[in-house]
Amino acid sequence: MTTADIIALARNQTGWTTTSQISDAQMLIYLNKVYQELFSEIAEKTDKKLTWQEWKADIVAGQSEYTLPILDTGTSEPWIKKLLNIYIKYKSSDTHYTKMKVLDYEEFSSSPDYLKEYEAYKATESGSGDQRSYPYPFAVRLDEKSIFIHPTPNSNVTHWLSIQWIYTPLDLTLTSSEVDIKLPREFHNILAVWLEQYIWGYRQLDSKRNIATNRYMVMKQNVLSQMNNVTESASRVTLPDLSWYE
């Protein structure tokens, strides 16, 4: 469904709510509220890989602070919601990425152990040949805009800072197509149902608003259940000894 389809469906299901009652522009405001709310619940309560994205940046010698992706409608860059993993290659000769421990500032400031033997670790140029586990290397997130990585890189390496994160999608527009809605196609209609309760509320029909809210809650639980089953996990099974059948 497109944005126009969802708004049209919501108008139909609320007694043909007209544009003179609620404009398309106001409908879009409501639609983006329900879209972001549902997307956030899916990201928090289901397999987070469904809202996973990877972003790569260049590492610069002597630079410890790196800017995180932020909302940019010009480049269609969504907003970072939560950091999952950060990987780094400190040298152009590195074959594999090194996984970094991700800390927020509060966790970092209350854990001075993360600075122990820092200079000794840095002297190994990213710990090459050193099997020391966490706390090195690590990254500290101070705000929504940047992280600080330690140890500080000693070389310039292109695209060897890899950040994996959960994102918040861009708001929809009145001309958004079906592919712009970052939800499985079969769940687009639930946005219209959640949109209904805003329409009934605007029209001060609270009994119908309660009915729409209850419908949405039931549908949402079904969506969350199905989304949890989207990915499969592998398991190891030991087969019985069948040699005596030979």
Write a concise keyword list for the protein shown above:
246 residues; alpha+beta; seven-stranded mixed β-sheet; extended; 2 domains
Commentary on this structure:
By secondary structure, the protein is of the alpha+beta class. It folds into 2 domains: 3-48 and 171-228, no CATH class; 50-167, no CATH class. It is built from 6 helices and 7 strands. It has helices spanning 3-13, 24-45, 105-109, 118-122, 188-202, 206-228, and strands at 52-59, 65-67, 79-88, 98-104, 138-141, 146-150, 157-168. It has a 7-stranded mixed β-sheet with strand order 1-7-3-4-5-6-2. A hairpin with a 4-residue loop joins strand 5 (138-141) and strand 6. The longest helix has 23 residues, at 206-228. Residues 126-135 have low confidence and may be disordered.
Global shape: extended
For the record, the count of structural domains works out to: 2
Biggest beta sheet summary: 7 strands, mixed
Q: Strand content of the residues, in percent?
A: 15-25%
Q: What gap, in angstroms, lies between the N and C termini?
A: 57 Å
Number of helices: 6
Secondary-structure element pattern, one letter each: HHEEEEHHEEEHH
- Read across the widest sheet, the strand sequence of neighbours is 1-7-3-4-5-6-2
Category from helices, strands and their pairing:
alpha+beta
Cα-atom radius of gyration: 24 Å
Mean pLDDT: 80
